[in-house]
Amino acid sequence: MYAQMVKTGIDHIQSKEEMSPEERAFQDRVDADIKIEPKEWMPEAYRKTLIRQISQHAHSEIIGMQPEGNWITRAPTLERKAILLAKVQDEAGHGLYLYCAAETLGVSRDELLEQLNSGKAKYSSIFNYPTLTWADIGAIGWLVDGAAIMNQVPLQRCSYGPYSRAMIRICKEESFHQRQGYDIMMKLAKGTPEQKAMAQDALNRWWWPSLMMFGPSDADSVHSAQSMRWKIKINSNDELRQKFVDQTVPQAEYLGLTVPDADLKWNAERGHYDFGAVNWDEFYQVIAGNGPCNRQRLRTRVKAYEEGRWVREAADAYAAKKAARAQARAA
Amino acid sequence: MTDKKEWPLWEVFIRSQHGLAHRHVGSLHAPDAEMAIMNARDVYTRRNEGVSIWVVKASDISASSPSEKGPLFDPANSKVYRHPTFYEIPEELGHM
């Protein structure tokens, strides 16, 4: 997902008896679906895990602007360009909502950006793949944003107030992203044979990385179990992946495109699609920094930060000058 | 690589078109109030969400303490007669 394999720093799930009175009261509130707000007492591991999860999510939104930004100047029409520009601007906004939510947990914005720019922080594996053709913009909106929505909708109900509120805002804006992607795919799929081939090629390349977004099976992960108990993770990775496949396959069929998985078939007994094995070696390679675009993404991010420095300095100088004038007037 | 000082945090309040009060929508960093309003427009009103923006430095907000939530609010708990539903109005009277 936009936050993948988030560690909780714990090695087993505490029973209620093992908990301190504060921890027990906290867990009772979470169990009763009472939202946890910034200044309230919370276990240190909850706070740290949330910072990791929310900041990873925020970094993904920020880095996620790059693959799509690549096509702003090359969009096929002025309308498509305006739409893509608005979508990329939304991603920036989503990153900002999430950074704000993370900051309520006592981490500073500068620390978060430093972690991103130094390569220390992780972001979603999906953004390390290149956008080679215009059809990739369609595939990203349809598949990548579709997968993100699958995860973000349940997170609107998560236990931490500021994160839940950020998710509500984001979900409201996100469905435009998925629809505009599908709209691009529809246009291409109904176009010339070359255009349809381009759409198929984009699906071929984005299908498996999209399934990887949900992360490896976490059925036996103590971290996922703890996060679910804290209600900062609502569904298991496998559950969400299955839901995504079930929802997306008919959409691909409607486009007349073929999902690149020989093992994909409807299982009437389960009421779900069966699908082939994901290549997790590739996933681990990408999150270890060896995906097709990891270095380029980070380089671009640092360059943007450095080249914006003079703007930040000018804004600082202007604010200081105005404040000094106001003070002189008051004296 | 970090800038020497972090911009202050501003809390953002937006009034929507329908005559409701300003509502807290989130926060952002900016060097001064003017920039905070400009940034708030881009971050929080990309879809016509508002007709008016307030920004307040987060450090200027005083808040009630979560640990005193009990004593602070319990005076209201025992006063159900402040709600209209406390009173029974005979059905033959119709709507009141």
From TrEMBL, chain A:
Top enzyme category:
oxidoreductase
Question: Which keywords appear in this protein's UniProt record, sorted alphabetically?
Answer: Oxidoreductase
User: What InterPro entries does the annotation carry?
Assistant: Aromatic_CoA_ox/epox (IPR052703), Ferritin-like (IPR012347), Ferritin-like_SF (IPR009078), PaaA (IPR011881), PaaA_PaaC (IPR007814)
Pfam families registered for this protein in UniProt: PaaA_PaaC (PF05138)
Q: Which organism is it from?
A: Microvirga splendida
Gene behind this chain?
Answer: paaA
UniProt-listed Enzyme Commission number(s):
1.14.13.149
Q: What is this protein called?
A: 1,2-phenylacetyl-CoA epoxidase subunit A
Keyword Phosphoprotein attached: no
UniProtKB/TrEMBL annotation, chain B:
Name the source's superkingdom.
Answer: Bacteria
Assigned keywords, A-Z:
Oxidoreductase
E.C. number(s) listed in UniProt:
1.14.13.149
Q: What class of enzyme is it?
A: oxidoreductase
Q: Which Gene3D superfamilies match?
A: Phenylacetic acid degradation B (3.10.20.520)
Question: Transmembrane region positions?
Answer: none
Name residues in a coiled coil: none
The reply to whether Hydrolase figures as a keyword in the UniProt entry is no
The protein in question is named 1,2-phenylacetyl-CoA epoxidase subunit B
As recorded in Swiss-Prot or TrEMBL, the protein's gene is named: paaB
